[in-house]
Each structure stands twice: as C-alpha cells, then as structure tokens.
Fold this sequence. Notes:
elongated, 78% helix, 9 helices, Tetracycline Repressor, domain 2, Arc Repressor Mutant, subunit A, 2 domains, single chain, mainly alpha, disordered N terminus
Amino acid sequence: xxxxxxxxxxxxxxxxxxIETIHSEGLDRTTVARVARRAGTSAGLVxxxxxxxxxxxxxxFRHLARGLEHELRTRLRGxxxxxxxxxxxxxxxxxxxxxxxxxxxxxxxxWSQVNHRPELARVQRVVTARLHSNLLYxxxxxxxxxxxxxxxxxxxxxxDGLWLRAMLQTGGIHITEARAYAREYLNTQLAARERExxxx
Length: 200
C-alpha cells in the first residue's frame, strides 16, 4: 500500500498535468489518457487515484481553491489591523500564483462548468463564502453591520470581475491595476461612510 505522503505527491503531479492539459488542449479535449501521457504514466494509474475525468476535474478544482486559500492565510498570518487585513484579502486574490496562464485557463474552464456540475458548484460556493467571510470579518470592525455587508457584496463582486478582466487577453488591464482598483473601491466606500457619520 502506498503511503499517504507518496499518494499526495502523485496526486499533485496528476493535478498539475491536468492544469497544463486544460491550458494547452482545452477542457473538452482534456481526458484521463492525455493527462496520463503528460504526467508520463498510465491512464490506469490516474484512474486509480481519481476514478474518471469528473473525479480528476473535481480534485483539480479543489487544488486551485486550496492554492487561493494558502495565499490568503499567508497574507493574513499575524495581521490584526482590519484595513490591512482587507488589503491582504484583495492582494491574495490578485497574487502572482493566481495569474499564471495555465492556472487562469483552469479557473476559467471550471467556472464554465459550475452551473452544470454540482460537485464543482460546491467548491465554488466554498470559495465565494470564504471571500465574503473574510471581508465581512474585518469590515465589521470599521463600519456598522449593514454597511459592512453592503461593502462586502460590492467588493467581492468587483474582485471577481476585475480578476476576470485582468486575466483575459482582451481585458485591457494588468493585475496590478486590478488590485489597485479594488483597494480604491474599498477606501472610497469607507471614506463615504465616514463622511456620512460625521455629517449626521
């Protein structure tokens, strides 16, 4: 029996091969056989770990979600200031690890399937809920609850939209600009509410 450590390493190799195959071949042409060839192994071994293409894609999407979570945890570690924590959440979503061409291709491919595959939709719901939760947690320290929820919704939608524009070749903005726009929106929202309270 394989050790858990070896299994994790092997699974990661297959997941990385899946991401590269999606990038080079497209999601429709990504098969267990093609992933196995790219990984230099047999389709049977890939199937041993993931079952079929659906299982392989599910495992790969979860891997991408964990990578985003790792970026977030790294930036939040030890940070207590609420505004800096909010910046950290924004920066995690626009990290370089989330902007490599292969990773971008994989995220876009999975998003195209979320409405059709319940197992992928569950992963996306976790990603969305985590973003909302982290934004709301820090915003509650800066503004009242109703305002915190309003800003959270707007900022979360903006982050997703800006990421998409920055990652598409036709988007017209760079990832650093996207990050700056998200921070600017946050600062503008907080400043506007501060003005309202001071004039109230």
